[in-house]
Input
Amino acid sequence: DLSTHVAGVKLESYLMNASGPKCTTWEELHTIAQSHSSAVVTKSCTIAPREGNPEPRYQDLPLGSIQSMGLPNLGYKAYLEMIPALKALGKPVIVSVSGFSVEDNIEMVTAFQQSDVDLIEVNFSCPNIPGKAQVAYDFEQTDKALAAITALGNKPIGIKLAPYFDMSHFVAAANVIKKYPVKFITCINSIGNTLIIDPYTEQPIIKPKGGFGGLCGDYIKPVGLANVRAFRELLDDNVQIIGVGGIKTGIDAFEYLLAGADAVQIATCFEKEGETCFERIETELAEFMKSKNYQCIADAKGKLKPL
Ligand code: DHB
Output
């Protein structure tokens, strides 16, 4: 049994799509709803619709991907309108909200609080908007934003965090989160502002921001595992953790479970393989857990053994 709960919402399995690839249009979201993804997570939305950054803005890499999409999305009102039809497909719906200011996030969260959406994931970690810092790397901003957005209604709020790389930052982030009724965290977003150079053309491989983009996939799995583990040890058990970063097999998903994830999201593997990845990884996870005599998610969650 791979069922799990996040912020009181039951998920039929431990795996869902991440906000990111192939979750922008109705057609894409419908495809996710028909797949084995246990929820439908929408692309991070902004107040107004956006085309996003100039192309090429995504490239496959041997061990993942690099992207600087620039938040192409239909604008939050389009997702608000889609919620009844998405919910009718039978799965929990999670909206991702990514305003450019606290005011933007207040407007969008207020609107989604009045909708039939199950969970609201507020993205504090988009690295790809020229001139905009990631909220998650500024703990004062994170504090102000959380104060504002957690006071707007009863639907559970979670936040999508950037990867941290210093123990003091895990502690600082956890201490801010603990001040507010944050019901779940999703970590990690891509490792922002990395650069891949093509030595033959002597150019970057994506166009926006002089080639700087978010690194995703296999490269970032150890960072994602460390972030989930660190926050699992720092936050109270009533805050659920959704792990993301480099999951492409059932065993990858199991490693996140040991680190303490309540559920996981899949981005690059979904981008590359398509929606059949959810059923494949689910089957692999079920088989691996069976081979170890684990019956359910709770049996192994957070049970990383000391060496
Ligand atoms: C985009 C990238 C992100 O990592 C994110 O959190 C939100 C948006 C983007 O470029 O579209």
The domain at 4-52+71-190+217-300 is CATH 3.20.20.70 (TIM Barrel). DSSP finds ten helices and 16 strands in the chain. The chain has one domain: 4-52+71-190+217-300. The chain has a mean pLDDT of 98.
